[in-house]
Amino acid sequence: MKSIDDSRLRMSIAVALIGMLAMHEAVAGPWEVGGLGIDKTRKVKIEAALRDNGESKAWAWPVFGYAHPLSERTSVEVGYGYGMIEHASYRSHGGRDLDLKLKYQIATQSADRLAWLFEPKLSVPVGDEASGIGRGKYVVELPIRAGKKTGRVTYTAELRYTHVFGASSTQQLVGVGGLVEFEPTERWVVGMDVFADAPAGGNQGVHSRANLAGKWRPNAVFEVQALIGRTLSNERGPSQTSYKLVLEHKF
């Protein structure tokens, strides 16, 4: 009887934490709201992320990414890594799902036009589902962004739809967010975003969060990104604190 209870506990914790581990990771920067441009050069990155709700922790480490430009308007990126879930009575680890992303520059900014970008992402369920790291289902994210750079400040707005194939309507999400970035120098970018999503079916369950982050560019090919984020309100679960560190190299 105890082994059955333990199995149920492990499963319930894994289900609760998989959402933390599989949340959207922006490509153009550490923020959840992504950027307005494609990758102009090839890029490799390594990332470490932590989401902590006070009772459990979900780690993503290491996560590797490779970006490659295809044309003046498009670039692609592939990402894969390792994850771990920690709880007082439960700990698991395993491979994450494979992420495939496309960036398409709908329009660049001009005097009378905003910049527009479409960045669909497909998550392929190759991760360790038994441990709760892999989702076990295909997931499509469809974010579209519009924004404008004025002097040293960039404003970005994002609308996103997330569809989990074979899942209940509560996992099909519609989200909206905004990001403000400021460049005090050529080497530094700091910014803050706010993002909120809810089930597309109209069920209650809004989750809103904010992230404060920065990017440091010591030279033209290397970049360091760091983020700290916090839940503002969450009708779908406990509040979370997020941390992220990313190292990028362009070539």
* Total tally of structural domains: 1
**How many beta-strand elements?**
14
In CATH, the topology is named Porin
Q: Which architecture per CATH?
A: Beta Barrel
Bin the helical content. Answer: under 10%
Topology pattern, helix = H, strand = E: HEEEEEEEEEEEEEE
What secondary-structure arrangement, pairings included, does this model have?
Blueprint (H helix, E strand, L loop, with lengths): L1 H20 L21 E10 L3 E14 L4 E14 L2 E6 L2 E10 L7 E4 L2 E4 L14 E12 L2 E12 L8 E10 L5 E12 L7 E10 L5 E13 L6 E10 L1
Q: How would you characterize this protein structure?
A:
The structure is a single chain. The chain has 1 helix and 14 strands. By secondary structure, it is mainly beta. The protein has one domain (about 1-250): Beta Barrel (Porin), CATH 2.40.160. The longest helix has 20 residues, at about 1-20. The protein is globular, with a radius of gyration of 18 Å.
Primary descriptors:
mainly beta; Porin; 14-stranded antiparallel sheet; globular
Short account of what is shown:
Helices cover 8% and strands 56% of the residues. The protein has 251 residues and is mainly beta.
